[in-house]
Sequence to fold (256 residues):
Amino acid sequence: MIQVRAQIRDRELHGAVHILHLHAPDLARQLHPGQAVLIQTGWYVDPFLRRTFYPVAIDDAGFAIRLAPDADRGRAWLRMAPQGAEIDILGPVGRGYALPERTRRILCLGQGDAAWTLLPLVHAASAQGLGVALAMEASTKRQTIPPRDLPITVEYHVATLDGSAGRRGDLRPLLPDLLRWADAVMAAGSLDFYHVLARMIEDARMILPRDYAQALYQTDFLCGFGACQACAADVAGGRRRVCLRGPVFDLVDILR
Ligand code: FES
Fold:
């Protein structure tokens, strides 16, 4: 983990959602999809605790974070911070997604805002020439990833609860075919989403094997290096510090 000063190099506005592009080449070189960064959200030490972000884009020059509207004071400060401002960042935290060797077809499955954390992985897998399908479910179209943000080779499926984009409802009707097609699954969503996914994998492939599905255990970190225990959770057969063992786990380790 390193500490850097990163400049806000650009800001995209999509309704009430901000995408901040941060110039941080040293950190970007070490950052893998699914890893977190801890950002100081104020000019001094107020608010004291850093905020946790899972980048939604990574390139040679830096990375991008997504700020959906909420009531948090620190994230509100970031929404207001001017272009060119320098912010203090620690990262990367923990282990991200790992593309298994000999995998040819990757299925990325996301739910709501968490689905955006799959975007760096989608781009990385596509750049390696792998077959990539992305399927996400969300409440409304506003939460979904625009197709223009994806490589053209990616097969994209969307389901929304209100039917404003893609199919109405959730992804369940699509999953049997997608799961039979995929060599590996990379997921980002809630624990309920992961339980449904595990059942669908068992239906499609008889069992939920190890090394088939990886899932992001999305949580907030305080120290990010194992010292404070704030991220401890019941995963991988016991009480574990997610910043050391995760935040990406084998799906088996999140559910059992
Ligand atoms: S964030 Fe401190 S131990 Fe994980």
Q: What stands out?
A: The mean pLDDT is 94. Residues 221-224, 226-231, 241, 243 surround FE2/S2 (inorganic) cluster (CB under 6 Å). Residues 33 and 124 are 8 Å apart (CA to CA).
